[in-house]
Amino acid sequence: MALLFAICVTSSAQGAGGLTGVYSNKGGSLAIVEGSNETLVHLSGSFPQGSSVGTCDCAFAVQKKTDAAWTLSESGAEGSWTLRVNPKQFVLESGPTPQCCGAGYPGKDTFARSTVKPLGICKVKASKAAFHASDEANTQRKAFVVSGDAVEAYLDPVEPDFLAARFQGPQKATAGLLKREDLDCSAEGPPTASKAPVAADKLKPFAGTWVELTRQGKGFVVLKPCSAATRTFTIKPASGEVEVQLGQESTTLKVTSVEPGKGAGAWVLGLTSSDGKPEALQWKTADAAKGTVSVTSPDLFSQSHDYVRQEKKSVFPSKQETGCDEYER
What we know:
This protein is mainly β. It is built from two helices and 26 strands. An eight-stranded antiparallel sheet has the order 1-2-3-4-5-6-7-8, with no helix packed on it. The chain has an eight-stranded antiparallel β-barrel with strand order 16-19-20-21-22-23-24-25. It has a five-stranded antiparallel sheet with strand order 14-13-12-9-15, with no helix packed on it. It starts with 20 loop residues before the first strand and ends with a helix.
């Protein structure tokens, strides 16, 4: 399935690439890929939806762009969005019926500009890779890159057929969509980025196994699903790794950075998968006495947020999911 991104004319007051990067908040990310010819934008995130979690996966066409605000139209939908470009943050405001988001979307997302992370670095492995437009047919353009060229690219977690990318030439930057199969992104990330695990002493406050909590009424329970294990994650300071049990499968990542977040008990843990894909884990201590935390990230923890230390899970009632006999049939 082709990946849709926004196309807009770069403001003469904004240099190509000036806002390029991935900006994050507790619920998701805003990716901007700027070139001299066009700019590509993508919103991916989650938000509370009653007792569940809603998601956004949005593509926009920029109808008007100034230094202070961009007017965005959602493909195939009525109404417009506004992206306010403030000195310290982006404020994204939706139209009346944001079809690219689930029901109950609050209509507003804020991304601090200080959270910006660089795009990944991919090498062109095809002999020639043409840029494609962001239209429905992904029309091939005249611009292209060749084998060995390094491009900056946004790797969407859904692994689309096309990636938003930019190539910095001698005089201008070209932005557009490149076929994922034409790129080698195994070394994703800036060339100088360290992928080594962080020191054990920095991880000690987070060490141990954390068990997922499920909200029930005004409180939480430790829920045992019918056909899967309760989700957990284990942070291991000695190896600098975090093992995430997803219920029916598990994955192990390196913890490559630990930075203070906003407010007391808030941290941002940089995770890196075995294939080099980065993910920012937003961590917030919810109740230190009960040993509970709230975590979120664009992928692994996008729909699972509340956890308790394994040794303190007895504080919460344990409950088996109902209907298991019927499920097993």
